[in-house]
């Protein structure tokens, strides 16, 4: 049979109609009407001990089911980070702790029949605090006499350089070659420090979950999460119960971007259900999602870069200081990407990468699209752009002298061999799209406004090598279609559709013949979760392997029913047939897929199925080049982004529409980080920007028409030659916009965001 191929085709998302018609598919849509309403009393202090807490009046409010304090919380320490086991993140949390470590930390949990009753009860809790000195400057946190985690039961399961007695969540160093010797031999050595503040998550659906006990007394959790299997472990650890007593179900998710790789909300309704036996639900407000959730890590990155006068990068020395906040969560893992995804892209002769991740008395940081690479690439890319300016070299030309090439070993990237790379092609494509040669470096418009252009290059990864696991079960139904069960989490990215496209091509059928089941930890095969840009590459290969195995089983069963040897048969998606030497149907015998499935299930045994897991020893990097054109008003400092052009190498593009949407969304988030999103705290540790009235994200009118194209290499270790696309697209706007502003103003900005106020102050100093 000749069927239209599905890979590299813009197939409509499987859940598209349900989403656009408002079908009840999200967590709150599915919650029982009799759920207890769960809210928490939050600390007004950055660092304090609860001296006394009186909950009698609160508990007496009609409709209140329970009021829980630190005395009611299990003594188990755990982490909310959704990562492999053993987790690199320290076990430094309790559900409720007597020591409060940031403004917004949990003091008490209140559950009741109505929101009104709960709100009233929260106001009636009387708490006396012993206010302690906080650690609010992350540059002074290491070895500070004030300890964020002085407790003796704090523990780190992995050797990540953690030491709670030094306020260290993680620390380390790695190198290749003699950095100091190479730097001494360089014609130009620049040293610059770049500061990226925390950035808040602004997904449409805030953190939420509901819980209930089933007929067997097991804790059932329905949550908006990227990590169902990790949530099961997190809750079991926190509550001190076996994982077998916990079931987690993931419905549709209204955005994640890494925030929901942390179990932010699930534990609070869970403990209420365990204490009361009743269903419970917690929905974070937007305010809570901003003050007590999972923002991007604040980082300060110092780069020493040595170059020849011709522009060859010879050595990179990088130090990253990362602020994990009050709890470790993803601190030990994000910091690594700041170096591993930034240093290798220009193939230095020698490199050194050192880092410290410190505890402070701010809300805990977590996973956010780009996951540390965003911060590191901003630093390295801007340092290279600054070096190009000092050497008088076009920033595109300096990159041509330094690009990675296929076949190279990357010492700063786990010593992986690069098998697929179109980064140079991406830059040339973006150059043509931007018309760079005519616009570089700037154009004075003659009315107090100047236009400038800038460039940024990015690489990321495709899953975590030897860690991320994808498992797929595909089963032939008695109607001749396929049921595919996956543990990967579709969070709006369309992975259900993309994996179905792969399966359809493997099985020579239509996408509609692949029925995908949502994640349920009781029945879905294990998957480490949707993060680290892993789903297409890791779970996709599991799909390919599972389909191959199932095809072999279908051919064997069909051949048996036809009474011919399996080696003489083949399968075209519709039937098993007797084949000639060229695998073509010789016309002598065939049996339909529907007949095979019916006879197998109704006559001779179980349905034909295959279950396969996949974990990759490598993480092939996707690449991207982004170019920005801005117009700066020299009188007001206003920055207008006029154009953004990008070219992406993500290997074979499985679904061009979904890949383009991923790219455009990541670029917009990068624009927000570069120009708008600004987090500031009071001297008491209270977040000032705690709503969309204060926290500015880019509106549609501030975003130009983005142009994204693909220039695909072929990754031999990926399914159909695919790599990842979800995170690499976040990283280029930061250096590209900063360089564009430099070309327009003569000012380098090494702290984000670049605001009109900063531009005006900088221009004032130049004058």
TrEMBL record:
Transmembrane segments: none annotated. It comes from the Bacteria. Keywords: Molybdenum, Oxidoreductase. The keyword Oxidoreductase applies. GO terms for molecular function: iron ion binding; oxidoreductase activity. It holds the Pfam family Ald_Xan_dh_C. Residues 21-133 form the Aldehyde oxidase/xanthine dehydrogenase a/b hammerhead domain. This is Molybdopterin-dependent oxidoreductase.
């Amino acid at each position: 049979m000749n069927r239209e191929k599905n890979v590299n085709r813009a197939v409509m998302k499987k859940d598209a109609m349900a989403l656009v018609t408002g079908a009840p598919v999200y967590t709150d849509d599915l919650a029982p009407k009799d759920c207890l309403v769960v809210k928490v009393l939050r600390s007004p202090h950055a660092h304090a001990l609860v001296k006394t807490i009186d909950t009698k009046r609160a508990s007496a409010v009609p409709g209140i089911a329970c009021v829980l304090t630190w005395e009611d919380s299990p003594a188990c320490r755990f982490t909310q980070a959704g990562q492999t086991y053993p987790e690199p993140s320290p076990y430094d949390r309790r559900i409720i702790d007597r020591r409060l470590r940031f403004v917004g930390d949990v003091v008490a949990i209140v559950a009741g029949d109505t929101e009104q009753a709960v709100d009233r009860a929260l106001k009636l809790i009387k708490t006396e605090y012993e206010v302690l000195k906080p650690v609010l400057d992350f540059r002074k946190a290491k070895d500070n006499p004030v300890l964020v985690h002085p407790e003796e039961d704090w523990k780190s399961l992995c050797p990540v350089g953690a030491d709670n007695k030094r306020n260290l969540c993680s620390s380390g160093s790695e190198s290749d070659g003699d950095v100091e010797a190479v730097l001494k031999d360089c014609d130009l050595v620049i040293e610059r420090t770049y500061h990226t503040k925390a950035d808040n998550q602004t997904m449409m659906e805030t953190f939420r979950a509901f819980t209930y006990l089933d007929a067997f007394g097991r804790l059932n959790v329905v949550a908006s999460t990227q990590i169902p299997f990790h949530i099961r472990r997190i809750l079991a650890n926190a509550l001190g119960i076996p994982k077998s007593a916990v079931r987690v179900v993931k419905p549709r998710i209204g955005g994640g971007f890494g925030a929901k790789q942390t179990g932010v909300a699930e534990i609070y309704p869970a403990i209420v259900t365990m204490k009361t036996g009743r269903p419970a639900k917690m929905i974070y407000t937007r305010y809570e999602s901003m003050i007590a959730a999972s923002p991007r890590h604040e980082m300060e990155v110092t780069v020493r870069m040595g170059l020849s006068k011709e522009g060859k990068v010879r050595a990179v020395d990088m130090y990253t200081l990362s602020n994990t906040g009050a709890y470790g969560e993803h601190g030990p893992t994000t910091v690594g990407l700041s170096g591993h995804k930034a240093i290798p892209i220009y193939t230095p002769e020698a490199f050194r990468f050192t880092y410290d991740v410190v505890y402070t008395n701010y809300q805990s940081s977590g996973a956010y699209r780009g996951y540390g690479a965003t911060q590191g690439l901003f630093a390295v890319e801007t340092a290279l752009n600054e070096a190009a300016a000092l050497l008088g070299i076009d920033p595109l030309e300096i990159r041509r002298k330094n690009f990675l090439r296929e076949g190279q070993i990357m010492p700063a990237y786990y010593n992986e061999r690069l098998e697929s790379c179109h980064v140079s092609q991406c830059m040339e494509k973006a150059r043509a799209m931007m018309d760079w040669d005519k616009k570089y470096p700037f154009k004075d418009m003659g009315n107090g406004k100047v236009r400038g252009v800038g460039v940024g290059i990015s690489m990321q990864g495709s899953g975590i090598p030897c860690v991320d696991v994808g498992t797929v079960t595909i089963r032939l139904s008695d109607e001749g279609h396929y049921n595919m069960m996956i543990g990967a989490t579709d969070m709006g990215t369309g992975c259900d559709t993309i994996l179905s496209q792969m399966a359809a091509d493997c099985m020579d059928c239509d996408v509609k013949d692949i029925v995908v089941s949502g994640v349920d930890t009781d029945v879905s095969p294990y998957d480490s979760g949707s993060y680290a840009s892993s789903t297409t590459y890791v779970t996709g290969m599991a799909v390919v392997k599972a389909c191959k195995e199932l095809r072999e089983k279908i051919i064997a069963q069909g051949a048996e029913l036809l009474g011919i040897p399996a080696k003489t048969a083949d399968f075209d998606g519709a039937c098993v047939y007797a084949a000639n030497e060229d695998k073509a149907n010789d016309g002598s015998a065939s049996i339909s897929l529907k007949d095979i499935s019916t006879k197998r299930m109704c006559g001779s045994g179980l349905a034909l199925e295959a279950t396969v897991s996949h974990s990759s020893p490598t993480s092939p990097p996707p690449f991207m080049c982004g170019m920005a054109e801005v117009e700066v008003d020299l009188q007001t400092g206003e920055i207008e982004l006029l154009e953004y052009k990008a070219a992406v190498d993500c290997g074979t593009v499985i679904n061009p529409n979904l890949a383009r949407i991923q790219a455009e969304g990541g670029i917009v988030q990068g624009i927000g980080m570069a120009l708008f999103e600004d987090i500031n705290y009071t001297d008491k540790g209270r977040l000032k920007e705690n709503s969309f009235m204060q926290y500015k994200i880019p509106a549609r009118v501030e975003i130009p028409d983005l142009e994204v194209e693909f220039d695909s290499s072929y990754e031999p270790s990926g399914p159909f030659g695919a790599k990842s696309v979800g995170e690499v697209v976040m990283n280029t706007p930061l250096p590209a916009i900063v360089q564009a502003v430099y070309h327009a103003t003569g000012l380098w900005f090494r702290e984000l965001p670049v605001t009109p106020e900063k531009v005006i102050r900088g221009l004032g100093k130049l004058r």
